[in-house]
């Protein structure tokens, strides 16, 4: 078992809203997409997720290996879990795709192999989490040992969810529970589909034991809105994908039904549940994320001159203030920092990160056309109409695949051209970034951090506390028992103890490298170098005060520790 987490950024506090309320509603879904190991498939799934306004989408049969998390270009977060072995086959696999709302409420998540994944989210009800378990069960014809192993593992995951929490179990269970609810009245209604099979018996027993209500059986709908899977010849329909909720929170679930309009070329329909629920942002830090200034504008002469004028005006106002009033070194530094950051904000603005979506509008039109062909299948009234619509859908899907492959090829060629141009012009940063995209090599997913006893830590806050504890001990070592006895020098060495001169400051500012991340003060190097003379004069006054007071500003004592995994067991802080 592996566990993972992602730190969150706080927002301003809002008035808490009760968990059970008619004013708050979210939608969650589950979908067997048949594969995500196909060019452009992830983007198509994300488009459908946004179209149906889903907070969380559980995905079965991703065919991805390993476990990890990734941020999509459109903002969604994908948590995935697959086969952990090296050179594992691209089969099975589960994932959870999170909207921004759900991403901000994420408390932690766990991967449990290629068939089960779990994530926990903070809700507005104090002390109550929403646990979502997405799974992909073995088929009804699978070996009994494989089924037993799956249900044993699923049971161990469910029973670790606190009874006070809201628990959702969903996914492709490959289980037909049927219409007859005799003996299972507490956990299912009579609005299911078909007759119960062996997997359905196992699934119903699991739900009864854990008091999980099977949502698809308790809401009356037309047959077409109950069926979640359709056979390739479109003659057989079954209800094998389910969304369940623990009985304690049964009234939180308002509806469960399939959405036949959703389309990613799968033989399964998207299943959506409406919940009366409000998620809450998970605070894990006392700081907001630093947003970078768009220093690229300083390459433009007009913008550079505008920046110089604005900065000089602020520096002049600060110098006048220093002459009129008695100010401390700390006030002097705060004035310089405010002058620089305010000018950056006013003239440069914040840097916007544009993630270029490589799928063309022509391909999007073809995807829309395929969706229309699926609607034609769903609305067919005769067998002949359905066969014709199905043939047209297959052809439309082939066109989508061809178009996506062509888009990908064009995107790669554009990257190669950009890399060649960057190499010719000596823009090494752009060359490195583009080559990295071309190679398709990304850093390995961050492994779960373990506590001192070697147990994986589930929650993000606890993971952060573990890192704090580790670095406190690493960086605050006790003094040696036997300090070295070094004989003092007979004469004082000729060391210049005068404050730094303007020339020394000017040289140091010039030597700062561009395009490097700013520190906690968020002052970019390009801003300091925009008008070296003005910056030198202000820093000279500041350094003089620092020399006299023998103190540095409080901000300078703050630093950010960034952990960089190297080799070995990356779940250990020591690695």
UniProtKB/TrEMBL annotation:
Keywords: Coiled coil
Annotated SUPFAM superfamilies: DNase I-like (SSF56219)
InterPro entries xref list: Endo/exonu/phosph_ase_sf, Endo/exonuclease/phosphatase
GO molecular function, one term: catalytic activity
Coiled coil stretches, renumbered: 370-399
Top-level taxon in the UniProt lineage: Eukaryota
Endonuclease/exonuclease/phosphatase domain segment(s): 29-268
PANTHER family attached to this UniProt entry: REVERSE TRANSCRIPTASES
Full protein name: Endo/exonuclease/phosphatase domain-containing protein
């Amino acid at each position: 078992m592996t566990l993972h987490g992602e730190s969150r950024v706080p927002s301003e506090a809002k008035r808490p809203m009760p968990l059970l309320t008619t004013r708050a509603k979210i939608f969650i879904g589950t979908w067997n997409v048949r594969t995500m190991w196909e060019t452009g498939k992830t983007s198509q799934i994300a488009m459908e997720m946004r179209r149906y306004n889903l907070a969380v989408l559980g995905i079965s049969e991703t065919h991805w290996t390993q476990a990890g998390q990734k941020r999509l270009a459109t903002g969604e977060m994908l948590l995935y879990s697959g086969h952990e072995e090296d050179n594992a086959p691209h089969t099975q696999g589960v994932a959870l795709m999170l909207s921004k709302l759900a991403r901000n409420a994420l408390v932690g998540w766990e991967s449990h192999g290629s068939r089960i994944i779990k994530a926990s989210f903070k809700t507005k009800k104090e002390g109550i989490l929403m646990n979502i378990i997405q799974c992909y069960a073995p088929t009804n014809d699978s070996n009994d040992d494989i089924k037993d192993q799956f249900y044993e593992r699923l049971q161990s995951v469910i029973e670790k969810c606190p009874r006070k929490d809201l628990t959702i179990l969903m996914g492709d269970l490959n289980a037909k529970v049927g219409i007859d609810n005799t003996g299972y009245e507490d956990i299912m209604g009579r609005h299911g589909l078909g007759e119960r099979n062996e997997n359905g018996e196992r699934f119903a027993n699991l739900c009864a034991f854990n008091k999980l209500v099977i949502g698809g059986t308790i809401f009356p709908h037309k047959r077409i809105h109950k069926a979640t899977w359709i056979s390739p010849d479109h003659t057989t329909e079954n209800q094998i994908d389910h969304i369940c909720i623990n009985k304690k929170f049964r009234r939180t679930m308002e509806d469960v039904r399939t959405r036949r309009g959703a389309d990613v070329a799968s033989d399964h329909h998207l299943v959506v549940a409406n919940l009366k629920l409000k998620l809450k942002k998970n605070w894990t830090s006392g700081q907001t994320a630093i947003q970078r200034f768009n220093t690229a504008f300083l390459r433009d002469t007009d913008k550079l001159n505008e920046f110089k004028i604005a900065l000089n005006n602020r520096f002049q106002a600060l110098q006048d203030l220093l002459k009129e009033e008695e100010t401390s070194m700390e006030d002097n530094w705060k004035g310089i920092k405010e002058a620089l950051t305010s000018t950056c904000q006013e003239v440069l603005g914040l840097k916007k990160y544009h993630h270029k979506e490589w799928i063309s509008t022509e391909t999007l039109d073809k995807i829309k056309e395929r969706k229309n062909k699926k609607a034609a299948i769903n609305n067919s009234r005769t067998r002949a109409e359905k066969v014709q619509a199905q043939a047209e859908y297959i052809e439309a899907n082939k066109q989508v695949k061809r178009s996506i492959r062509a888009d990908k090829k064009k995107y790669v060629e554009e990257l190669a051209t950009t890399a060649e141009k960057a190499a010719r012009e000596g823009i090494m940063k752009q060359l490195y970034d583009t080559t990295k995209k071309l190679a398709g090599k990304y850093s390995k997913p961050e492994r779960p951090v373990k506590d001192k006893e070697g147990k994986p830590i589930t929650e993000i806050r606890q993971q952060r506390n573990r890192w704090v504890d580790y670095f406190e001990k690493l960086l605050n070592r006790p003094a040696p028992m036997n300090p070295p006895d070094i004989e003092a020098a007979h004469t004082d060495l000729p060391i210049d103890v005068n404050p730094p001169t303007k020339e020394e400051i000017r040289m140091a500012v010039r030597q700062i490298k561009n395009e490097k991340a700013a520190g906690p003060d968020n002052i970019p190097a390009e801003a300091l170098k925009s008008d070296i003379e003005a910056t030198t004069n202000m820093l000279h006054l500041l350094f003089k005060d620092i020399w006299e007071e023998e103190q540095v500003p409080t901000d300078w004592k703050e630093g950010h520790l960034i952990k960089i995994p190297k080799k070995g067991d990356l779940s250990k802080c020591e690695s």
